[in-house]
Amino acid sequence: MHFDTHTTICSLITPPGLSGVAMIRLSGPDAFSIINRHLHSDIKHKASHTISYAVFLDQDHPIDTVTIFKYDGPHSYTGQDTIEIGCHGGLIVPKKIIELLLQSGAQMAQPGEFTLRAFLNGKLDLTQAEAVNDIIHLQSPAALESASRQLIGSFSKELSALRDATERLFKYMILDFDFSQEDIELVPEERLISELQALSLTAERFIESYETAKTLRSGHQVLLLGFPNAGKSSIFNAMLGYARSIVSDIPGTTRDFVEGSMIIDGIHFTLIDTAGIHEQTEDAIEIEGIAYSKSLIKRATIILIINDVTCGEQHSQSLIDLVQKEHQNVHCKLVQNKCDLIDHTSKDLVNLYISAKEADGLQDIIAYLSSMAKLTDTHNTFLLNERQAILLKEYLSAIQRALALTKEGMTTDVLAIELRSALDTIGLILGTVYTEELLNDVFANFCIGK
Ligand SMILES: Nc1nc2c(ncn2[C@@H]2O[C@H](COP(=O)(O)OP(=O)(O)O)[C@@H](O)[C@H]2O)c(=O)[nH]1
Ligand SMILES: [Mg+2]
Question: Is 0.85 surpassed by the pTM of this model?
Answer without folding.
Answer: no
